[in-house]
Amino acid sequence: ERVAHLLRASPKAELHVHIEGTLEPELIFALAQRNGVSLPYADVQALRKAYAFSDLQSFLDLYYAGCDVLRTEQDFFDLAWAYFQRAARDHVVRVEPFFDPQSHTVRGVGFEVFMPAFIQAAQRAQDELGLSVGWIVSVLRHLPEEDALQTLDAAQPWLDHLIGIGLDSSERGNPPEKFARVFARAREMGLYAVAHAGEEGPPAYVLGALDVLKVERIDHGVRASEDPALMQRLAREQMPLTVCPLSNVRLCVVPDLAQHNLPQLLAAGLKVTVNSDDPAYFGGYINDNLTELFAAQPALGAPQAYALLRNSLEASFAANGDKALWI
Ligand code: ADE
Ligand code: ZN
After folding, report:
1. Ranges of H-type helices in 97-178
2. In this predicted model, what pLDDT tens digit does every residue of 195-205 receive, in sequence order?
3. By alpha-carbon position, which residue is closest to atom 8 of ligand 1?
4. For residues 120 and 118, what is the distance between their CA atoms, to the nearest angstrom?
5. pLDDT tens-digit series, residues 248-303
6. Which member of 15, 126, 156, 184 has the greatest number of CB atoms within 10 A?
7. For the residues 73-84, what does the mean pLDDT come to?
8. What value does the mean pLDDT take over residues 80-105?
């Protein structure tokens, strides 16, 4: 209980959250009504009941469908501002949210619609909540590299408001190597690089993200534990892993929280962080992820709580001056 309180009340960074994954069913219905979009669900409860996933793809299908209600600048502002207020309640002081431009541009909604909203919401979060925000533009790996290069072109005018490039969507069959040119260009543009790897995909995808994309964090990475040499390397390089326990359970990456390998990853000396991924779909925000994991795992106590919270702040891409305030 003492540790749960420490976890909930301590300053922390959220380093793996998709802003589209914070779209709560209530907001989906409100935006559908506002925009005259009809939904194939009777009400909020019916939609929530559909959130029973068997793997990553079964989730992504609903996640991209949910995006369809996001049409106007106001919609994106309401989405981001609602999330920032929710994150501040969990004592998040720094958040580096992903956004998926291609899930919007494919519907004719461009950067000129969502970027001003994201910028304004971030400014308000800083001013009113003391919450520091760094946006990560994420490209969809199930689409061709050429589409990702075009997305990077479209992001160029907004570069001052972006901190990194990410890689998400259907992992299996879409290895990191497919996006070598995109990540090389993004790094030339001054963006930090991160990629989802080792969620459903094999340890080889984590290696590809490190060696070919030259990422400075691995998103998920839980399957690294299948490869002892990779584990040693991740520990030696202190490569941050943004682990998302409730996501892993909901997407059947692990059977339940009690069997999650996060304690082993920590014990092996890896720089592990706890994050929420798509909290509107997976049943919990960052404090829920932390406290439910600790409740399920007797091996986790105060030392691990302290390490996870400190890791989250250290692994952030915030300026060193900001980090010095938090750590
Ligand atoms: N997009 C949103 N959440 C994701 C996840 N957990 N893995 C891959 N792509 C995603
Ligand atoms: Zn994710």
Report:
1. 102-105, 111-124, 145-155
2. 999 999 999 99
3. 169
4. 6
5. 999 999 999 999 999 999 999 999 999 999 999 999 999 999 999 999 999 999 99
6. 15
7. 99
8. 98
Set 199, 200, 292, 314: catalytic member:
199
Is 1 known to be catalytic? no
Closest-approaching ligand to the CA atom of 20 = 1
Average pLDDT in the 218-240 region?
98
Q: Tally Cβ neighbours within 10 Å of residue 233.
A: 16
For residue 137, what pLDDT is reported?
99
Q: How many other C-beta atoms are found inside a 10 Å radius of the C-beta of residue 94?
A: 22
Give pTM, 2 decimals.
0.98
Distance CA 59, CA 40 (A): 16
List Cα–Cα distances, 143 to 77, 173, 265, in angstroms: 27, 11, 31
Whether 299 and 264 have beta carbons less than 8 Å apart is answered as: no
Give the chain's count of helices (H) and strands (E).
17, 10
CA 134, CA 299: separation in Å to the nearest integer?
A: 33
Q: What is the pLDDT of residue 1?
A: 84
The domains of the chain, with CATH numbers, are 2-317 (3.20.20.140)
56 lines ligand 1 (CB under 6 A): yes
Question: What is the number of alpha carbons within 13 Å of residue 259 lying toward its C-beta?
Answer: 7
Instruction: Evaluate: CB of 200 within 6 angstroms of ligand 1.
Output: no
What stretch of H or E contains 163? strand 162-168
Higher-confidence residue: 46 or 1? 46
